[in-house]
Every structure is written in structure tokens, then in C-alpha cells.
């Protein structure tokens, strides 16, 4: 009875045509009521199964499943089939067989030469047969003059190129001399030096054919005449202990680095050197000078940021005297944007040192950045008036330098030029040589 009811539930609605809505009374609630009646013992007439709307022929032609067999036949068939014993899998069955080699691949025999070395196909080599890499040859170290020429390349190449173009198939006349004078002034050589070169050239070659080589030769000779009187060594009066060197210059001109290079040269010769970080407005300057002191084995003295620079100079002098240092090098600030304050500070340092030793500071060096051009002339004027500059060091003579300005400064101020620097290395500061500098600017070989 219950089986018939369940069958009725799952065939409910099959006796109605497709698309026809079932009666509203035959809902789920009515079926539940019918189930309760069955449990009460009432007999419900079994409903006839609805005919499958798809004919068996259609199922067969559509590749659908075959007609259902009765459950008894299926069970009998399963029971009649003997159980196949489980076969034990071998480990080899878990591996995939290797694919067969194509017909066009053949396996050869490994060949060896008389030295038992394996012969490999073209494009291969054994590690033993590979040649050992050649040791890297260190680049030849350039001489000082070669590095100087590289540093003045911008000035010399531009100047000599323009001169060569000016004197191509042309006789020397007044118009040519005026054009040459303009070129020399634009190269920062200064009016005085430009006139010297053109006057000499006119006296030797006026009205004659002139080549670029002629002009370069005369230019080098006249520049040498200007620079020769200022190319001097830095004299140290070691009867004063310490010999005080005050280094001044605009921030960014390489003061701190130059101090480190000077200390390296002096301490390398056995002198006892002390450095004082007098640029108390820049923490980086104090730290950088401390690093240079460590590198060169020099004594370092500094103070807190923003402290009075004159007080530091006083303390450094007293300490250097007590420790019997040979040389005391004092760094200073270079804030030209606050020119009045800067100059007052420098004047105070000079006064304080003069009270401890009437001759101190014994040397006042100014660093000049070779890339600044005409501004360097104004800087020399300012620092010379305030701090009593008595010597120059030209720095940053690299490929971007406008080194001709040193000639103009020498002609105007006639201050000694002690050293020139062509880089940041500790060995890139060398004594100034007039002939080398003139030849490098004129583009001549040494």
C-alpha cells in the first residue's frame, strides 16, 4: 500500500498532457492527507502510469539508453558472473613506458682521441678542453699631465676647434685678430691675457698665413708667462708650532676634501697634523672632516653644531700647541648668501688666532671651483679683502671645467697658486705647474 502511494507521488502529474496546468486541489497538502488515510487503513486505487511522450524508436535513433531490464534479470546476471581475483600490482606498472625513439635518431659510439679525451659534437666542449680565461690586464695609470689634459678637455677642445676654424686659409689681419681676441675672452682667459696673445701673434705673423697650430703655440707661451710667477710651492714655517693654515672658500668648492688631501700629503711625510672643523653650520662638513682625519691619521677636533667658530679655532690652537702638532688646518664656513655674517665670522677667527700668535694664521688658502668661471674672480676679491687670502687651490678640474679662469685670476690678483685638483681621490691634488697647465689649455702634447 505504502509502495503504491510513493509511486503515485513520483508519477504525480504524468497523466496530464504537457503544458496543462495541474488542478489546484492536487497540491502537496492533499497528498499528505492521502498518506494519513493510508496509515488509517484506507485503500487507495493505484493510478495508471503515464505513457512516455518520447517513443522508443526516437530514443534508439538518438543514441539514448536501451530499454530497462527488470531488476531480477540484472541481479541474476551479476550473480552468475564469477568474481575476478584482485591482481597484485607490481611497482613497474606504476611507471610510464619510455616512448620509442624516432626512426631517424641513431645512437653512436662515444669516441676518444689519443689523449683519452672525449670527442663531442660540434658546438660542445668538455670543461677540461676549455681555455683558461686570460687574466684581466689593469688599465694603464694615466700620468698627471694626461689627467690634467682630460680635466681641461672642455676648455682646450672648444678653444682650439674655434681657432682652427678661424684661421683656415686666411691671412692674419685686424678683423681676424679681433675675432681671436673675442674667442680668448669667451674662454675665460681674461682681457689682459687675450691682448697679450693677439699682440704677440700680430708682431710675428701679421699679413701672413696663420694656422691653428701657430696660434696654439703662441697661446701656450703667453699663458705660461702669466702663470709662471704664481706657480709656487706652499712654504711652511715649521719654527712655528703649529703652522696654522686657514682654508676659506664658498661652500661647494671642495674645502673639506682639499683639507683631507693636504693632510694626507703632510702626514705621509711624517708631520703631525691636526684638523679643526670650523664649519660649524653644516653637520656633513664636520662628519666628513672626521672621516678624513681617520684616513690620514690626523688629530681631529670639533664641536657641536652651531657653536662659535672662533672659539673652536682658539681651542684647536691651544690643543695643537700642547700636543706639539706641526700643522693645524682649520676649515671654515662659506655662506656667501649671508656675506656680511660670513665675513664678520672670518674676521673674528683671524683676530682670535692673532692673539695667540701674532703671525697666525700663517697661510690663508682659498679653494676655487674651476666650473664656476667668472664667479671665481668675484670670490677671490671678497675673501682676499676679508680674510687676507695669500694662496689659491683650484679644484674640480674635470671634463666640465672652465680652467681658463685661473689664467685671468693669476693675471689680475697675482696670488700664488699652490695646488690643483683633478678628482676626488686622495692622490688627485698635485702642485701647480705653469707649463703643464698652459700646454693642456692650448691642446698641445707635453
Shape: flat
The main β sheet shows up as: 8 strands, mixed
The helix/strand order is HHHHEEHHHHHEHEHEHEHEHEHEEH
In percent, how helical is the residue content?
40-55%
Span of the ends, CA to CA: 126 Å
> What's the overall average pLDDT, rounded?
78
Secondary-structure class: alpha/beta
Beta fraction:
5-15%
CA-based gyration radius: 51 Å
List low-confidence stretches: 19-26, 42-48, 58-65
Number of strands: 10
Order of the strands making up the biggest sheet: 5-4-6-3-7-8-9-10
Number of helical segments? 16
Brief summary of the model shown:
This protein is α/β, with parallel strands linked by helices and 446 residues long.
Task: Note the main attributes of this structure.
446 residues; alpha/beta; two-stranded antiparallel ribbon
Walkthrough of the structure:
The chain is α/β, with parallel strands linked by helices and 446 residues long. Helix content is 43%, strand content 9%. The protein has 16 helices and ten strands. An eight-stranded mixed β-sheet has the order 5-4-6-3-7-8-9-10, sandwiched between helices. It has a two-stranded antiparallel sheet with strand order 1-2. Strand 7, helix 14 and strand 8 (391-395) form a beta-alpha-beta unit. Helix 5 (144-151) packs across helix 16, helix 6 crosses helix 9 (212-227) and helix 7 packs antiparallel against helix 8.
Amino acid at each position: 500500500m505504502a509502495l503504491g502511494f510513493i509511486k503515485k507521488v513520483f508519477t504525480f502529474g504524468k497523466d496530464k498532457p504537457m503544458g496543462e496546468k495541474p488542478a489546484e486541489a492536487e497540491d502537496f497538502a492533499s497528498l499528505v492527507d492521502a498518506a494519513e488515510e493510508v496509515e488509517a487503513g484506507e485503500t487507495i486505487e493505484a493510478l495508471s502510469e503515464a505513457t512516455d511522450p518520447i517513443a522508443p524508436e526516437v530514443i534508439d535513433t538518438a543514441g539514448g539508453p536501451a530499454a530497462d531490464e527488470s531488476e531480477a534479470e540484472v541481479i541474476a546476471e551479476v550473480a552468475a558472473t564469477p568474481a575476478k581475483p584482485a591482481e597484485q600490482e607490481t611497482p613497474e606498472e606504476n611507471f610510464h613506458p619510455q616512448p620509442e625513439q624516432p626512426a631517424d635518431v641513431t645512437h653512436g659510439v662515444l669516441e676518444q682521441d689519443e689523449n683519452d679525451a672525449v670527442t663531442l659534437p660540434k658546438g660542445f666542449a668538455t670543461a677540461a678542453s676549455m681555455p683558461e680565461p686570460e687574466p684581466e690586464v689593469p688599465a694603464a695609470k694615466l700620468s698627471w699631465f694626461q689627467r690634467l689634459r682630460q680635466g681641461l678637455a672642455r676648455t682646450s677642445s672648444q678653444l682650439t676647434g674655434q681657432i682652427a676654424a678661424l684661421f683656415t686659409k686666411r691671412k692674419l689681419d685686424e678683423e681676424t685678430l679681433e675675432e681671436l681676441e673675442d674667442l680668448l675672452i669667451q674662454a675665460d682667459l681674461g682681457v689682459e691675457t687675450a691682448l697679450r696673445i693677439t699682440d704677440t701673434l700680430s708682431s710675428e705673423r701679421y699679413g701672413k698665413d696663420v694656422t691653428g697650430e701657430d696660434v696654439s703655440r703662441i697661446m701656450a707661451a703667453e699663458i705660461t708667462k702669466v702663470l709662471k710667477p704664481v706657480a709656487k710651492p706652499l712654504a711652511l714655517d715649521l719654527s712655528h708650532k703649529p703652522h696654522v693654515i686657514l682654508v676659506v672658500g664658498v661652500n661647494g668648492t671642495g674645502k673639506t676634501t682639499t683639507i683631507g688631501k693636504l693632510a694626507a700629503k703632510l702626514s705621509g711625510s711624517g708631520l703631525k697634523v691636526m684638523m679643526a672643523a670650523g664649519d660649524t653650520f653644516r653637520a656633513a662638513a664636520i662628519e666628513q672632516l672626521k672621516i678624513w682625519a681617520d684616513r690620514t691619521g690626523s688629530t681631529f677636533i670639533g664641536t657641536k653644531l652651531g657653536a662659535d667658530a672662533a672659539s673652536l679655532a682658539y681651542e684647536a690652537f691651544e690643543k695643537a700647541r700642547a700636543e706639539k702638532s706641526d700643522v693645524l688646518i682649520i676649515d671654515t664656513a662659506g655662506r656667501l648668501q649671508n656675506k656680511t655674517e660670513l665675513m664678520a665670522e672670518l674676521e673674528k677667527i683671524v683676530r682670535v688666532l692673532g692673539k695667540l700668535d701674532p703671525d697666525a694664521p700663517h697661510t690663508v688658502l682659498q679653494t676655487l671651483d674651476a666650473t664656476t668661471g667668472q664667479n671665481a674672480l668675484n670670490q677671490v676679491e671678497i675673501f682676499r679683502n676679508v680674510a687676507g687670502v695669500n694662496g689659491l687651490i683650484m679644484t674640480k678640474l674635470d671634463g666640465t671645467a672652465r680652467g681658463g679662469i685661473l689664467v685671468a685670476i693669476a693675471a689680475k690678483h697675482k696670488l700664488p697658486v699652490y695646488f690643483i685638483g683633478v678628482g676626488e681621490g686622495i692622490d688627485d691634488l698635485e702642485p701647480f705647474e705653469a707649463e703643464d697647465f698652459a700646454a693642456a689649455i692650448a691642446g698641445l702634447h707635453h
